[in-house]
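About this split. The held-out portion is used to measure sequence recovery: a designer receives only the structure tokens and must propose an amino acid at every position. Recovery is the fraction of positions where the proposal matches the reference. Here is one held-out target exactly as it appears in the evaluation file.
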């Protein structure tokens, strides 16, 4: 037995082979490119060697790099896995020439079946059923003439390679003429061979393949068949064993044909003989032979109890028991689902990106073969398959149930995958009934409850409320919406709870396409939003039809941030308890970054239940602009120190309705208990009084150098008596109003600061506190109030020292802003 084996591959298959080597107590050597330095197959191997840059030609396809790694590590054998060099006859020969065992078929076996047209000739000589077809075509004219004899539709196929590359169904001479040069180019580019031929196309075809294993001495056994008919663009999606609906007679005939064909070359190691099964006539025809381990080999292992990788290693090492010593009786059923980082709604185009969360079911439910984990970056350099989910049951019904459960338990965030597509296909009547054909998925209708980002804007992110808080001690500053009231109102308008994930636009919006009907609300700054070119009204719920495009431009003078809430929220997983994006840290939201073109956001958070949407009818939304600020003395700040003047307030109008008098600059809003209660019920934002219009000129117009003494957070609560005797007030007069400044022992370890309290008739009306520690639970121990009416806001205050709260902890003061991105 070998002491050390090098795996000339990457990803899931490399991890799969390492697992068997570990069990066999054989050392494993992983090779990797610069793009795969953090792949699981690198960390799970006993040794690993960097073999080149990201392009496969400079790494995984480089003979010199791989043989250098083998020499450096002392590997005695090389397992090629599948893809890359697994069916490269020159590589297999070079292994033999260098005295390294190639774990797979002998070079002459690979060569015998490498070209499909020669494999067809071998099959014909053996009497294996063949589809009507041609030899290699000389040119387009020859193709057109041969197609007329075969009768349309026909399949134009490359003679080399596999994986669905270089195949085109042609229903007419015109389609054949269009496809001919394209297939030639694909064949030449991918396989170094420009040979093409024609086969008669079967409209209701199923893809059935037989797993075989040979000892190289004329003995070959069949290990069961697999149905791989669930394909998109000739690429397998779901595979299962046994193939549903086959008679025992047909099954035995398939096995006999596969064994007969591979015995003609004294085949050694694992291989697969593929057939086309005509579902209308129940006839089958030879397709090709894959002289390697198949991606879907796992389902055969599940029902037979054997380890095909171990068999390949033992056969190559000359340590394989005689094949007739095995009694193989498949039991039960097994199904595999291939998970790809691709976008099914965009013609399955690959979708590279950073995975913020990866979750798969445990081994009690499914066998998962993967190379990814949370934090993995999917690069554009290789095949986008990232995992295989394999389930087994005592019969097909149980296996189908487990597949549904396993797919539902799987979650991958950060980039688009085909997981939702797999769930739909696995539940489709065609697949459940076992009647799916190779053409079924071409017309499969897949819809998703999602939005697609067409343009990301300046800084467009996913946020939630209250955001990510409480992690300063480990170096993670708070995250969340800047204008949380506008954010929360947007959620209320669509019936979401306040913690629903929504989108925040900063300064400049973007463009979004809706892939399904949706209920949305836009709040905050005016960005000139348009839906399909028609202006959108803010602060109301709007029904949007699938296919619609929402566009937002630059923010106007009354604010810089706008919010888009969607009923059901955004289906992204929380990180440190929040879905808010922290861009500097690279986590939360979607891939830990701002949204950009091509991103797909799925709707429907699992942890929220939408209710009847709220309405702003009867309420007033006041947008304060610069003139209003100068007239009323109102200003709100955000973390950037910009004037976010999109202040949602009913306070002034409510006071006017209650008292008949509009407050002037000498009156502090929210000082009457009746008015305060009305405002509290309305979840109204508070306002901070500026002493005089002259003082407005002293306020900073750009970002302040420090937040010290320039920011105050205001917690507004319902009136109630002070609890206990621990309050030590210091009373001073200020423009005829009593203002009490005091410190409370309960707040001291949290705030390390002072509270400014505004009294009205011996009742606490408004609390102004400096620091981020005021929470409803803290307040409830000090005051009698309804925590649902707890609000907290941030304001600039006057530079007048008399109006500033005292600050004892300047370091804390600098960290006051809630939202650091």
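Reference sequence for scoring:
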């Amino acid at each position: 037995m070998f002491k050390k084996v090098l795996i000339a591959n990457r990803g899931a298959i490399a991890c799969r082979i390492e697992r068997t080597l570990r069990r066999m107590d054989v050392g494993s050597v992983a090779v990797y490119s610069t793009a795969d330095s953090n792949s699981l197959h690198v960390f799970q191997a006993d040794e690993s060697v960097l073999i080149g840059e990201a392009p496969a030609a400079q790494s995984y396809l480089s003979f010199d790099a791989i043989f250098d790694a083998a020499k450096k590590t002392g590997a005695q054998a090389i397992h090629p896995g599948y893809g890359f060099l697994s069916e490269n006859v020159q590589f297999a020969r070079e292994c033999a020439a260098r005295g390294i065992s190639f774990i797979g078929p002998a070079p002459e076996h690979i060569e015998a079946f490498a070209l499909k047209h020669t494999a067809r000739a071998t099959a014909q000589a053996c009497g294996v059923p063949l589809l009507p077809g041609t030899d290699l075509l000389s040119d387009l004219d020859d193709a057109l003439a041969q197609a007329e004899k075969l009768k349309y539709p026909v399949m134009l196929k490359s003679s080399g390679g596999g994986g669905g590359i270089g195949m085109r169904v042609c229903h007419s001479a015109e389609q054949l003429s269009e496809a001919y040069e394209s297939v030639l180019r694909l064949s030449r580019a991918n396989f170094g061979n420009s040979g093409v031929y024609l086969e008669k196309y079967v409209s209701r075809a199923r893809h059935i393949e037989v797993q075989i294993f040979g000892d190289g001495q004329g003995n070959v056994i069949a290990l069961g068949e697999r149905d791989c008919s669930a394909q998109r663009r000739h690429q397998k999606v779901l595979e299962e064993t046994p193939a549903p609906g086959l008679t025992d007679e047909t099954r035995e005939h398939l096995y006999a044909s596969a064994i007969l064909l591979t015995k003609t070359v004294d085949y050694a190691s694992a291989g697969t003989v593929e057939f086309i099964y005509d579902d209308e006539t129940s006839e089958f025809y030879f397709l090709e032979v894959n002289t390697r381990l198949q991606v879907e080999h796992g389902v055969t292992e599940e029902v037979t109890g054997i380890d095909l990788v171990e068999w390949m290693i033992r056969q190559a090492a000359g340590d394989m028991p005689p094949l007739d010593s095995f009694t193989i009786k498949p039991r039960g059923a097994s199904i595999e689902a291939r998970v790809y980082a691709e976008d099914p709604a965009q013609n399955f185009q690959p979708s590279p990106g950073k995975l913020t969360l990866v979750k798969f079911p445990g081994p009690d439910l499914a066998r998962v073969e993967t190379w990814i984990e949370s934090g993995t970056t999917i690069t554009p350099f290789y095949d986008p398959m990232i995992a295989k989910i394999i389930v087994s049951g005592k019969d097909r019904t149980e296996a189908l149930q487990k597949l549904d459960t396993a797919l539902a338990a799987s979650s991958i965030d950060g980039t688009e995958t085909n997981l939702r597509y797999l769930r739909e296909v696995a539940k489709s009547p065609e697949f459940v009934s076992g009647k799916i054909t190779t053409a079924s998925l071409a017309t499969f209708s897949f819809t998703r409850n999602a939005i697609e980002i067409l343009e990301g804007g300046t800084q467009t992110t996913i946020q939630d409320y209250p955001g990510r808080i409480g992690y300063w001690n480990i170096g993670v500053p708070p995250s969340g919406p800047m204008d949380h009231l506008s954010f929360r109102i947007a959620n209320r308008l669509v019936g979401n709870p306040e913690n629903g994930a929504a989108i925040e636009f900063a300064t400049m919006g973007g463009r979004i396409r809706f892939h399904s009907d949706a209920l949305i609300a836009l709040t905050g700054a005016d960005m000139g939003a348009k839906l399909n070119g028609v202006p959108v009204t803010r602060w109301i719920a709007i029904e949007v039809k699938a296919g619609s495009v929402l566009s937002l431009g630059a923010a106007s003078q009354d604010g810089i941030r706008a919010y888009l809430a969607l009923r059901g929220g955004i289906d992204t997983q929380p990180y440190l308890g929040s879905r808010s994006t922290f861009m500097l840290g690279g986590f939360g939201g979607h891939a830990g970054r701002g949204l950009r073109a091509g991103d797909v956001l799925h709707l429907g958070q699992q942890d929220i239940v939408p209710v009847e949407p709220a309405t702003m009818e009867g309420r007033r939304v006041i947008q304060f602009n610069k003139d209003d600020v100068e007239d009323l003395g109102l200003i709100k700040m955000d973390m950037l120190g910009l004037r976010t003047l999109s202040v949602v307030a009913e306070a002034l109008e409510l006071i006017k309705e209650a008292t008949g008098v509009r407050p002037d600059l000498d009156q502090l809003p929210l000082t009457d208990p009746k008015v305060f209660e009305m405002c509290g019920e309305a979840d109204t934002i508070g306002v901070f009084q500026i002493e005089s219009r002259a003082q407005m000129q002293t306020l900073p117009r750009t970002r302040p150098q420090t937040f010290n003494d320039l920011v105050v957070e205001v917690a507004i609560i319902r009136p109630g008596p002070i609890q206990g005797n621990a309050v030590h007030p210091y009373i001073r007069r200020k423009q005829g109003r009593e203002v009490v400044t005091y410190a409370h022992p309960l707040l001291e370890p949290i705030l390390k600061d002072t509270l400014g309290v505004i009294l009205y008739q011996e009742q606490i009306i408004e609390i102004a506190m400096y620091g981020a520690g005021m929470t409803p639970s803290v307040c409830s121990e000090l005051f009698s109030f309804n925590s649902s009416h707890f609000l907290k806001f941030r304001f600039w205050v006057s530079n007048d020292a008399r109006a500033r709260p005292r600050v004892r902890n300047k370091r804390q003061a600098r960290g006051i802003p809630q939202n650091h991105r």
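Annotator remark: Residues 513 and 549 are 4 Å apart (CA to CA).
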